[in-house]
Amino acid sequence: MDETPLDPRQALAELGRIRLADTDLDAVLSRIAHLARRAIPGGREVSLTLVRGGTPYSVAVTGELARELDEWQYEHERGPCLDASASGDTLSIPDMASEDRWPRWAARARDAGVLSSLSVGLPIQDAVVGTLNVYAAAPRAFDGEAIELARTFSAYAAVALANAHLYESTATLARQMQSAMESRAVIEQAKGIIMGERRCSAEEAFALLSKLSQDSNRKLREVAAALVERAAGNAP
Q1: For residues 17-37, average pLDDT
Q2: Closest-CA residue to 11 (of 203, 142, 146, 107)
Q3: Does residue 60 come out as left (phi exceeding 0), alpha (psi in the -120 to 50 range) or beta?
Q4: Which residue range forms the structural domain that includes residue 128?
Q5: Of 120, 143, 169, which residue constitutes the final position of a domain?
Q6: Is the separation of the CB atoms in 183 and 169 below 8 Å?
Q7: Would you tell me how many other CB atoms lie within 10 Å of the CB of residue 176?
């Protein structure tokens, strides 16, 4: 699988093209993890932890290092990925050398060459919870932009999981969740274009998209899609 760095906008476009009807859930989650590894600046390895019935397991990993660091936490019932799964919070460890919340796990991570990490709780309010975990070889590897990007990937993983559960009971609801995932992708692409053109923050870019939607009386996704098509040279 290609592991060369990937522009976040390209990664989000790839996510938007994933269709659960065409592949199984494990393949979708593995694809999300590998795209996150390539797109999140500073990331060395990525994993997705799920907790089902109180039992955690790594459903997708980009390498054995991520699996080993996850499984240490499962075995000792302590660590950032477990706490983030339970709370839904984003837990950052900027420097393993000074980490005092999970000192034993931090020492294990340092021994493995991981000096900072990020665990983002999946926004799922159901029987399944989990995290997106990103491990880095350098301290303070993740800035605010990287953290927001990790949250976006965790949201895609959550949508994929919710989609899979809904698909078992109703294909209509599953298609709606797929549409939501695709809408999110095109909106994120449009935000990236505005941020690049106007040198503004993600919040300011979204505010501008919302205003354009209101002023033109069009759905937010339609406005975003038109902007992406224009940037691609497919529209005037």
Answers
A1: 82
A2: 146
A3: beta
A4: 8-169
A5: 169
A6: no
A7: 13
